[in-house]
Structure formats: structure tokens, C-alpha cells
Amino acid sequence: AKFLRGYAENLGVLRVEGLIESVSCDQASGFIKSVSLKSGSVIDGELFIDCSGFKGLLIEDVLKTGYEDWSHWLPCDAAVAMQTESAEDPAPFTRSTALEAGWQWKIPLQHRAGNGYVYCSKYISDEDAINTLTQNVSGRALTKPRIIKFTTGVRKKFWNKNCVALGLASGFLEPLESTSISLIQSGIEKLLHFFPDKSFKPELINEANRLNLLEYERIRDFIILHYKASARDDSPFWRHVNTMSIPESLSAKIVAFEKNGRLISYAQETFQDASWISMYNGFNIVPDQPALKLEQKDVEGLTRMLNKMRSAIAVGVNYSPLHRDFLKTL
Predict the structure, then answer these.
(1) Helix/strand/coil percent split, the chain, to 5
(2) Separation of alpha carbons 112 and 147, rounded Å
(3) What is the DSSP letter of 141?
(4) Partners of 48 in the beta sheet?
(5) Among 15, 78, 66, 54, which Cα is nearest to 166's?
(6) What sign results for the dihedral spanned by CA atoms 41, 42, 46, 52?
(7) What is the pLDDT of residues 110-141, one digit of tens each?
């Protein structure tokens, strides 16, 4: 964020920092005309981008856009996060571990480790969540545990009148697949693609909103699959998500794959076929029959090709440095 701020300012972007005290709207159109800061400054504008996070100071507090709550499908509504010293050689991946009422993340960085417990407050208290996390981290704590509350869902319009919401102001999907930065970028791309003139044509704004909602729904379904497909039933939380109803769009995908391995791909998919296959395989969702019948010679050729791939991967692994050693070269 600091780097991008400096980069923008070097290109001539004027940055004015302050707390918004009031917002002025046009009485006829409802468009935002200006924001007044606590310092007394008034910032006029034709297009406003709301990056105020969960608060949605413009998109919600002013324009009353509305929010589509998806917590009945994704019930985790809180997280506790803390940073620790790196106590061991860093792994080259983020680890997500299922816990009694949600899941824990561990993100190894060069200079520290990020840790957190995403949970459903219906099944565990904040205090117990903090205790669970602190007992399951390694390394000396660098920060105190911090509680973050959220409601998974999406703003009913990410673009309303002359205001575009980006980031958490436009919606939030719990961080199991860490999609927040991706959604910021795709939101910026939609803004650029449908960038308005002074007429703010509603047809273009409606199309931008349609595409944004589809993208959120596709990611939502992929995250729901992590819970719904789990066979874990050792706690009330996991029994609930295992038996809950799911969106029709996700149900159709699972049924099609179970029948013959067919992968359904909808518009605005963030996660591609390889990601869905890894999920199905990991949760032992196996097709009843293959989509294609192979002759014996095809099977033999396929086996030879896979063996060559296995050998090539082994050579690459043996050649590669350990992750720890690679990081030291940067």
C-alpha cells in the first residue's frame, strides 16, 4: 500500500488525508456531490470510490445500497490473528488446519509468521478462540491476539450511482482461499472497462454489477465446497456445515462430477478446473464412471507419459534449493 501510494503521488495524484464528517448529495439524482472533512475541507467530485472497508461509508451509510448476507452458507463470522517469530525453517506454502469451530492459518514470511483462527462464534467464544490459537502457534508472540468480526456476503451493488465500492466495502468472502486482493484487482478492472462519462449510463453500471455478483458467487461456491464436502463430524460446527443446504449452482457442479467426472464452468469463474479437481480428489468425491473409455493401447501410452512427467518432476525437485536457502538469496 505504501509503495502504490508513493507511486501514484509521483505521477501527480493529490492525496488529502482526513476524517469524513458529512456527505452532500444532489437532491434530484441522489449522486454524491462532495465530502466534508473534519478539518473543514470540502472535496468535490464526479466519481467517488469507497475504500472504507466493512463500514462502507459512502456505498452503504450514504447510498443505502444493501448487503446480501451469505452467513447461512459460510457461518464463520470472526477471526483472531497474531504474529509470531519464525521458530523453524519456513515452509513454501500457507497451511490451513481444520479446528473444532473453523480453521487455523499459518503463513510463513521471511521475517515472521502470520497466524489466525477463523471461527463461528455460535460454536466457540472469543476467549476460547484466543486460547486455542495461542496454544497452537510456535515462536514468540510479536503481537497480541486481535479479534476481527465480519459477515460473509456481498454488497447488492458494487457500483451505485456515482460511487464504486472496492475491497471490503464491496463485500467479504472469508479468507480460506485468500481472495480479497484478487477481488480488489478485478473490481478495478471492471471500473476501467465500464469507466463512465458524465451521463453514467445505467445499462453499463448494471452490467458491471451483474459481472461483479457472478464473480462473488463463483468464489462463494468454491469456499462452501471446503466445508460441505468434508466428512468430519466430530463437533457441532462440522456436523452443521456437512448437512446444510447449498446453492443450486454448487450442487449442479458436484452432481455432474459425481456422475462422470464432467466439470461445469460458469461465467466469471476465479477458480479453474485444476482447482476444482484438487478439491474433489482431496475430499474423495469420485465419478461413478469415467467420461471417456480408453482402449488398452491408450492406457499404456498415458501411463508412459505420466511416468515421464513423474521423472521430470523428480529431477526438478532434486535440482531445486530448499525454500530456506532460496529465501536467503533474495
Answers:
(1) 40, 20, 40
(2) 20
(3) B
(4) 163
(5) 54
(6) positive
(7) 889 999 999 999 999 999 999 999 999 999 99
| Continuous segment of H or E residues that includes residue 186 | helix 180-193
Q: Is 312 left (phi over 0), alpha (psi -120 to 50) or beta?
A: alpha
Q: How far apart are CA 145 and CA 157, in angstroms?
A: 34
Rounded Cα–Cα distance for residues 129 and 93 (Å): 24
Q: Where are the alpha helices (DSSP H) in the chain?
A: 2-10, 126-135, 180-193, 202-228, 236-243, 248-260, 273-282, 296-319, 323-328
Contact 115, 86 (CB under 8 A): no
CA 57 to chain centre: 21
Grid coordinates belonging to 160 = 451505485
**Counting every residue, how long is the chain?**
330
With 90 as the cut, is the pLDDT of residue 220 above it? yes
Distances (CA, A) of 94 to 76, 113, 178, 268: 19, 10, 10, 25
pLDDT mean over 103-107: 97
The answer to whether the Cα torsion of 253, 256, 261, 266 is positive or negative is negative
Confirm if 166 and 109 have CB atoms less than 8 A apart.
no
C-alpha cell at 233: 463430524
CA 47, distance to chain mean position in Å, is 26
> What crossing angle do the helices spanning 273-282 and 248-260 adopt, rounded to 10°?
70
Rounded Cα distance, 27 and 89, in Å: 60
